[in-house]
């Protein structure tokens, strides 16, 4: 796992990370979700996340309480298991939970969000 984390850190050095336009919700090893890291802090988190446990449930259930106005969740990757589980875990305050796996999925969501 450590070589993968080191490889990720090296790869991320070559990437320009612009400040996010929307909050990025991260699941750190502490289980306390953190929001909108930028620059080196985001790089460090992404590299270290490879060797850390995923605290998914704590992160997801904490979102409605975060006062960030999170009401649309987007999961990127194949399958719909996380979006479906999220709908069950925190149905209060969430307008939608989507899974995006293809370019068409992204286009559809962009159109829905624009209207």
Automatic annotation (TrEMBL):
Q: Which domain of life is it from?
A: Eukaryota
Its EC number is: 2.3.1.39
Q: Which GO terms describe its cellular component?
A: mitochondrion
GO biological process terms, semicolon-separated = fatty acid biosynthetic process
What terms describe the molecular function in GO for this protein? [acyl-carrier-protein] S-malonyltransferase activity
Which SUPFAM superfamilies does the entry link to? FabD/lysophospholipase-like (SSF52151)
Keywords from the named record:
Acyltransferase, Transferase
In terms of InterPro entries, this protein maps to: Ac_transferase_dom_sf, Acyl_Trfase/lysoPLipase, Mal-CoA-ACP_Trans/PKS_FabD
Q: Which Gene3D superfamilies match?
A: Malonyl-Coenzyme A Acyl Carrier Protein, domain 2
Catalytic activities: holo-[ACP] + malonyl-CoA = malonyl-[ACP] + CoA
Keyword Kinase annotated: no
Put simply, this protein is called [acyl-carrier-protein] S-malonyltransferase
Species for this entry: Melampsora larici-populina (strain 98AG31 / pathotype 3-4-7)
